[in-house]
Amino acid sequence: MVRLPLTPAEVERGQRLGALLRRARAERSMLEIALDARVSPETLRKIETGRVATPAFPTIAAIADVLGLSLDAVWAEITQPKHGVEPSSSDHNARERLAS
Length: 100
Hints:
Elements: H1 8-25, H2 30-37, H3 41-48, H4 57-67, H5 71-78, H6 89-99
């Protein structure tokens, strides 16, 4: 199976996800969080550094649970557009569905 290259928006979203997870992890060790979430420390490291920009949903759900983050909060944080950029209609529609 050939994987299509990531779009710049997907790469940026992956970077925001990594930054969010690093902030939420705070002083806790990467190893502790990875083991509690039942993912490899290398997977967590790759996600936090943005090297895996589109991790699997169960992986993010497990990490978010260990960090005490709701998936709604994670999605809201990583899909925020850059300042001065209007969200696309699909972004707007997705936010409306989340808010309902």
